[in-house]
Design goal:
The complex is a heterodimer. Chain A is of the alpha+beta class. Chain A is 35% helix and 13% strand. Chain A contains 5 helices and 5 strands. In chain B, 29% of the residues lie in helices and 21% in strands. Classes of the chains: A alpha+beta, B alpha+beta.
Chain lengths: 151, 713
């Protein structure tokens, strides 16, 4: 049984069991290793991907439930105008230390700015609060989001 | 000293023919040491930053610089590299003079080119370096190039790859024939595997999984990751554990007392063998401060890749100490250290000794059972929270006598289990004894009782010696061993608790005496650089708008290890009606000597602040008889984006001074500043970390019982 997923603009046939959480299909079968597993419990945000433009964790939901939806991983963010702006802003603000949370945060910020191009502080916090960072890069991430937003 | 052990220029810096290559034994764990080292080489040799690489940090190749810890990397590896690069600059200029003439002062070095103005001689720095003999030695007294102008801001190495998802962590390694692995850890450390149901194992093996067992060490491997995760659950269900005595449930803070302790007087930062002096007689004030067990709680669980080919064990690990780990693994497996090669491969930020080394050894154990298969072992979130070595619970007891608004006598006793749990070779197989899996193997190597760390400003007595000029000091270290949990080094070791205690205590004394809190600290300081930090902090506080009625402001000062970066901190907080502490604005003033990477320095100070705020407000390991109960981010909450202060950072750059370690400098004062701000806001003195809403309500109730006053929360 194969499953067809639309990932980063391409249809990909995958052989993993459809009950496999999406992240294992991305990383293990498709070798898209930019998405990071932090907890497998939807508690830390490291594994976020865009699903029809919305940032969602990929560590629990079965891959089969993503059929027919447009998945964008960190590897595909560059093809996305907002995503490129977010990446440039993270670089400009040095908004990472170890970088393990960074992919998830770039994805979440891209999703936020696609839906609200000039978010206020509360909207930014709401979007980023599901994401943990243990290095304490939060102040720089917040600056990067503001830098990437439309004034 | 790194240069003494590795005296050759080529030990530290060379070329691959077209690019400059830096060699270091210190590993980049997100603290930007590779960025700083690149900047140092660039400053001394004027090779463009994009032509400089850092060689992989691998045993047998990299200089052995022990462990990347203690904020030492800039002062050790950074200094060694600067000496080597500056010596190299002198050597290549001498070479150019010998060939083309000119005087030393005439040759200019810029953009990777040595150039003699007026004459059309231009030599590539990298070409000249290749002509320096391989046995040329570092001149430790060489003169460094002085820096003019603003502090440098080199771009962070790896950042562009991180934001694109291309940065490779050990978790991402992928080799042909690789098997994913999981370890089935016991429910708690005193449990042993009594029975493994053979039918279940046979079933899993029939499906192609490989089961590895050595005593109570149990693991499973297979070609695809998710099936292995599920198979690990099935294997866990096939285990019958003898739970033994379970985890001790006694009150750890009661255990932290002199009767259970090995006691040492600390003089000049060094513990002394012998009788400890008597208690301070009739102190005017005394208080006890405590910190709960806390964890590193890396965002990415620990992982490692290992392969055994019958002769050589190859390991990729995010350990902070690849050489000590190599020797400890070799001893555990009865291999010659030369048969074990460990390459540092990034993991997520670790902040000390987390599960990295244990995962590396576990991967090695599995690999030894499955020769010629690369084994990628990943810990689960539960594994990481449950099995990493924790930061020990601590208590700090302070007493002082006061006369005319000054402290005239000062006593401090610190109580803690060990902060030194890293695997390192030593007597009686000390290395193997500190690798977790060795406790569970059939030929078990049990843990050693912790020995007192007698190093200067080390372990629990880091920052025990107050940086203030108190005339009569009594400093006592109390090592209490055999407590509930395995413990080891976490960012700042004992310094965070010691600074929290001292800086809270000073606040209490200043408040009781009606003194200005900044001025009270100034009165007891003699170091002009410390005073400069506090002066700048004061100026910045003065520029802040007045606090809201419900808000409070706290401050603290410390110099990490009494010899590294000086940091003054001010934090504004509000305590809301749910007794939650909301962080407002924070100010950090720091003096780290010569600044190498201003952005990286700021990032470390900020990150240290945020992590310390998380310790202060949230973090506490919990457990019961059956095991650790804080096994995920709900049961071990940490700070999130909804409580991040705005931060104003001032760095007092001193380009002519040596560069000082800064990675741990802000955390201690931040914890204290938050406690002091809570007191300023609501009049409640928090004396045990973390300051959770429950803890604040309890402290308020105790204050009410003590004084009959009405607490604000």
């Amino acid at each position: 049984m194969t499953l067809t997923l639309r990932i980063n603009g391409e249809a990909r046939n995958v052989t993993s069991d459809p009950d496999t959480p999406l992240i294992y299909v991305l990383r293990d079968e498709l070798k898209l290793k930019g998405t990071k597993l932090g907890c497998g419990l939807e508690q830390c945000g490291a594994c976020a991907v865009l699903v029809d433009g919305v940032s969602l964790p990929s560590c629990v939901s079965p891959a089969g439930t993503f059929e027919g939806r447009e998945i964008t991983t960190i590897e595909g963010i560059q093809a996305h105008e907002t995503g490129r702006r977010v990446q440039a802003a993270f670089i400009a603000e040095s908004a990472a230390q170890c970088g393990y949370c960074t992919a998830g945060l770039v994805v979440a910020t891209t999703s936020l700015l696609d839906q609200n191009e000039s978010p206020d502080h509360d909207a930014i916090v709401l979007a980023l609060n599901p994401h943990l960072c243990r290095c304490g890069s939060h102040p720089r991430v917040l600056k990067a989001v503001i830098r990437a937003a439309r004034p | 000293m790194s240069v003494a052990a590795y005296p050759l220029i080529a030990d530290w810096v060379g070329t691959d023919g077209s690019r400059l290559v830096i060699r270091t034994g210190k590993v980049d764990i997100g603290q930007r040491i590779s960025t700083a080292l690149t900047q140092i080489a660039h400053e001394e040799l004027a090779v463009p930053l994009d032509l400089i690489d850092v060689a992989p940090v691998r045993t047998g190749h990299a200089p052995d610089e022990g462990i990347t810890s203690g904020s030492n990397s800039i002062e050790q590896s950074g200094h060694a590299l600067r000496c080597a690069a500056a010596t190299l600059r002198d050597r290549i200029i001498a070479l150019a003079i010998a060939r083309f003439g000119g005087d030393r002062g005439d040759w200019q070095i810029a953009d990777g080119i040595l150039h003699l103005p007026g004459i059309n001689h231009r030599c590539g720095v990298i070409d000249l370096i290749d002509k320096i003999p391989a046995d040329a030695t570092v001149d430790p007294d060489v003169e460094f190039r002085s820096r003019l102008g603003p502090s440098p801001k080199p771009g962070m190495r790896g950042l562009a790859d991180m934001v694109c998802g291309r940065f490779v962590y050990v978790h991402d390694l992928d080799f042909p024939g690789m098997l994913h692995a999981r370890v089935i850890h016991p429910p708690q450390v005193n449990a042993r595997l009594a029975e493994l149901k053979t039918a279940a194992v046979g079933d899993l093996e029939g499906k192609g999984f490989r089961v590895v067992r050595d005593g109570s060490f149990l693991a499973i491997a297979g070609p695809h990751e998710w099936p292995v995760v599920q198979a690990a659950l099935a294997l866990a269900n096939a285990c019958v554990w003898d739970v033994g005595t379970g985890l001790p449930e006694g009150d750890v803070f009661l255990q932290l007392n002199p009767k259970n302790a090995q006691r040492f007087e600390v003089i000049d930062g060094i513990p002394q063998i012998g009788a400890v002096p008597d208690r301070l007689v009739k102190p005017d004030i005394s208080a006890r401060y405590e910190r709960s067990y806390q964890m590193h709680a890396a965002l990415g669980p620990s992982a490692a890749l290992a392969k055994w080919d019958g002769q050589k064990l190859t390991v990729h690990s995010h350990s902070q100490g690849i050489y000590p780990l190599r020797d400890s693994i070799a001893d555990s497996l009865s291999l010659d250290p030369a048969q074990v090669e460990i390459t540092h491969t990034p993991g997520s930020g670790c902040y000390g000794h987390n599960g990295a080394d244990d995962a590396a050894f576990e991967a090695a154990l599995i690999a030894m059972s499955l020769p010629n298969c690369p084994i990628l072992l990943k810990w689960s979130r539960e594994d990481e929270h449950g099995w990493e070595p924790y930061a020990p619970a601590m208590a700090v007891e302070l007493a002082a006598r006061i006369a005319e608004g000054r402290i005239t006598a000062y006593s401090v006793e610190v109580f803690s289990d060990t902060h030194r749990g890293r695997p390192r070779p030593g007597a009686n197989r000390a290395g193997p004894a500190k690798l977790l899996a060795n406790r569970f193997r059939a030929a078990a190597v049990p843990p050693h009782p912790a020995q007192p760390n007698m190093g200067r400003h080390a372990g629990m007595h880091r920052n025990l010696d107050p940086i203030y000029a108190f005339p009569d000091k009594r400093l006592i270290k109390n090592l209490v061993t055999g407590m509930a949990h395995r413990t080891s080094a976490m960012r700042t070791l004992g310094a965070a608790a010691n600074i929290f205690a001292l800086e809270s205590f000073l606040d209490e004394i200043a408040c009781q005496n009606g003194a200005d809190r900044l001025e009270f600290r100034r009165t007891h300081l003699t170091d002009p650089l410390a005073l400069a930090v506090l002066d700048e902090l004061g100026r910045r506080i003065d520029r802040r708008p007045d606090l809201a009625e419900s808000a409070g402001r706290g401050m603290a000062y410390a110099q990490y290890k009494n010899q590294m970066t000086r940091v003054g901190v001010c934090v504004d907080v509000e305590v809301n009606d749910r007794a939650e502490v909301r962080l407002g604005h924070a100010i950090i003033v720091a003096d780290a000597g010569r600044v190498i990477d201003a952005e990286g320095l700021s990032a470390q100070l900020e990150g240290g602040l945020i992590q310390a705020a998380s310790w202060a407000l949230h973090e506490e390991v919990t457990w019961d008889r059956d095991g650790v109960t804080s096994r995920n981010w709900e049961s071990y909450p940490v700070i999130r984006f909804d409580n991040i202060p705005t931060i104003d950072i001032a760095i007092l750059d001193r380009p002519d001074a040596p560069s000082l370690g800064a990675g741990e400098a802000s955390s201690g004062p931040v914890v204290a500043a938050i406690a002091n701000a809570i007191f300023d806001a609501v009049g409640i003195r928090m004396r045990r970390i973390p300051f959770t809403p429950d803890a604040i309500r309890k402290a308020a109730a105790m204050d009410e019982a003590d004084c009959g006053s009405t607490p604000s929360v």
